[in-house]
Amino acid sequence: PVAAFAFAKESDRLSIAATDVIFTRADDGATWSEFALDDVLLSPFLGIGSDLVVVTRKTLYRSTDGGATWRGESLAGELVPADRWLTDGDALIALRGPHAYRTVDLAETWQVTTPYLPDEKPLALIPLSGSKFLLQTTTHVLTSADGGMTWQGRILSATTPVTSLPTGRLIAGAPTGGVEHSDDGDTWQLAPS
Questions:
Q1: pTM of the model
Q2: Could you tell me if residue 49 is left (phi over 0), alpha (psi between -120 and 50 degrees) or otherwise beta?
Q3: What is the pLDDT along the chain (193 residues), one digit of tens a residue?
Q4: Residue 113 class from Cβ within 10 Å (0-12 exposed, 13-18 middle, 19+ buried)?
Q5: Using CA atoms, how far apart are residues 156 and 151, in angstroms rounded to an integer?
Q6: Which one, of 96, 97, 86, lies nearest residue 147 by Cα?
């Protein structure tokens, strides 16, 4: 099954990621190249500056030429495997248990973000705007306004993952059967029924 798409506008190159392989088209679609990954893909294509990045359980793959070629860099220690990956365009952020790790040099060095996150599996991870993200766990909703360096949040007893509508409004099912909504991820209200 197809897991992610990426399009490099400068080179008119299209990359498609399946479960454990990346297919790249560099012309009108007549020819495709294939690059095998070492494991199951865990992330979508992430744009870091002018580079493309994808992540498996053990390896961070990076392309500096719009997907034409890929180079793998081994992930080690506490990051294997991270639960979720995201980017604000400048940094790569890995969520693993109660920790968030941030790198601005494509996994050469990492910073551990504070405060620690709830030790729960992430249910939803939504980029809001610029360096702002929303993270929903089993019992909490947290936001970061600085690219994942710091997080603040509250208990949100939603029964569904948070969803971002085309208008930018965030919604989640409430235990009462109603819907909670938010415009910024920080303040939530129960919608009148």
A1: 0.66
A2: left
A3: 566 666 665 566 778 887 788 888 877 667 888 888 888 888 778 877 778 888 888 888 988 887 888 999 888 766 666 777 877 777 888 877 777 888 888 777 888 876 667 777 777 778 887 778 888 877 888 888 887 778 888 777 777 788 888 888 888 887 777 788 888 888 888 887 5
A4: buried
A5: 15
A6: 86
